[in-house]
Amino acid sequence: MDFKLFLSTFAAIFLAEIGDKTQLAILSLAAGGQSRWAVFLGAALALTATSAVAVLAGEAVSRWVSPNLLRRLAGVCFLLLGVWFLFGRGES
């Protein structure tokens, strides 16, 4: 196993997920629920399933698109989303 890739992936996803809407939804479910374990296991399974879908989709896309181009496209998408959120119309 490539531990450098493992650790960088863990760190990136861990930092990206702190305080996001998924974590806040899980917090709300745990606060109002009877079983924290049921919330934890359900959330862990859901996050694992969505990660599996992303990995499989990434693998499939990489067959037709080079990883370099894919990183650049993802970067452009992030930049465009950032500009859109900064300068787009606000909520009324």
Account of the 3D structure:
The protein has 92 residues and is an all-alpha fold. The chain has one domain. 82% of the residues lie in helices and 0% in strands. The chain is built from 4 helices and no strands. It has helices at residues 3-17, 21-32, 36-62, 67-87. The longest helix has 27 residues, at 36-62.
Features:
92 residues; mainly alpha; extended
Write the topology of this structure.
Blueprint: H1 3-17, H2 21-32, H3 36-62, H4 67-87
Helix pairs in contact: 2-3
What's this entry about, in short?
Helix content is 82%, strand content 0%. It is mainly alpha-helical and 92 residues long.
| Count of runs of 4 or more consecutive helical residues | 4
Low-confidence stretches: none
Beta-strand proportion: under 5%
Biggest pleated sheet: none
**Order of helices and strands, N to C?**
HHHH
Overall spatial form: extended
Mean pLDDT: 89
**How many structural domains are formed by the residues?**
1
Percent in helix: over 70%
- The secondary structure category is mainly alpha
Distance from first to last alpha carbon: 49 Å
What Rg, in angstroms, do the CA atoms define? Answer: 17 Å
| Tally of strands | 0
